[in-house]
Amino acid sequence: MSSGRKGEYAEFAALMFIQSAGMAAWFVPLGSVLDVHGLGAIKPYAFAASAVAAFISPLIFGAMADRHASPVKVLRGLALATAATMALTGAAIQQHWNPWLILAVIQLQSLGMAPIWSIAATIVLARLTDARQEFGPVRVMGTLGWVAGCLLISGLNVDTSALVGYTGTAIWLGVAGFTLFLPPMEAPAGALNLTWHERLGLDALTLLRNPQHRVMFITAALLTLAIAAFYPYAPTNLRELGFRHTAAWMALGQSTEVLAMYALGHLLLRWPLKWILLGGLGFGVLRFVFSAFNTPFWLLLGIGLHGASFTLVIILAQIYLEKNVEAAWRARAQALFTLMTSGVGNLLGYLGSGWWFHLCTTHGATHWPRFWYGLAASVGGAAIYFVTRYRPRVGAPGGS
User: Fold this and answer.
1) Which H/E stretch holds residue 361?
2) Can you give the three-state secondary structure of 139-174, one letter per residue?
3) Model confidence over 222-237: pLDDT tens digits?
4) Nearest to residue 122, comparing CAs of 207, 203, 209, 182?
5) How far is CA 214 from CA 173, 218, 342, in A?
6) How many of the other CB atoms lie within 10 Å of CB of 304?
7) Most exposed of 103, 114, 137, 150 (fewest Cβ within 10 Å)?
8) Strand, coil or helix: what is 366?
9) DSSP single-letter state for residue 329
10) What's the domain count of the chain?
11) pTM for the complete prediction?
12) Would you say residue 191 lies in a domain?
């Protein structure tokens, strides 16, 4: 690899690191912050705000990056918007605004953050020579960034403080500044005479007509139904078992993610995509079964398996889309993927897990085994759907 290529590769890895740290520094402690500030009633809706945003902004900004503006400039604007609204959210919680007004501010902040991951993935994937081999090592820096964000929050001892909003603001300003050093990407040729349907990115929904694309989108969405319960409720279970600095303990979820990221390229050379993804769903079942044992050791082990499941399903599906969708549609494909996972999957997951948590709680005590076994069953259903519906193209590389 040439020195120029190595430098560009390092820049993409650094981008993944910084933006993941910003997401973790806000998203992981959010449940604890809301609980401590007496906002537990809006917690399911606060997490669902990101899902609602994923229905709106990713397709719009994905279409913009495909047709109107340089993806790097789109990312810079979104990072600045996220920094500003995150500071406002932190101030609203700190100053004890009306809970529903705080929820409205969280929703505004989510609208800026929701498209960021798909836009960044589009920028990186577009510049890689072989996404199957190169994306894993670049994306693993995002995992390490997530761990760094969690450790930063616990290191500053603000796991339950509204100050997480200001910490996140500083990181997102860093992301915006960092985009100035990214390799320039040519702005797409101006698109004229577009319908509003196309300008809003809704034409991306036509990708669902392809049976294999559709199975990949739906399977990822079904997994995120269960993942959506992880960040709001695993810290609560940890606190009940006597853990402090829960954001740092939650970073164990990224331990197997690092290993899986590095292994992904080798796995794709040796195993069909179908069986790798099914293995990821299997890890998803195990993580919740282990959590259901409700002891410190088994809960931490279940948290640790989060990364393997996430990588072998969600990241693998992103690579699948990069290899199987036409170049002119890739930003919209990644945006649609965000809509299906962060939108459909997370919205149903956050609201559904809130309902399920309520059913598993009586007289203020949560029956954690029942809660986690229910989530294990939901991932098992996703595995059954995938294995019965996915039909790989004969002769395709990696069985994709």
Assistant:
1) strand 361-362
2) HHHHHHHHHHHHHHHHHCCCCCCCCHHHHHHHHHHH
3) 999 998 888 788 988 9
4) 182
5) 36, 6, 16
6) 18
7) 137
8) strand
9) G
10) 1
11) 0.69
12) no
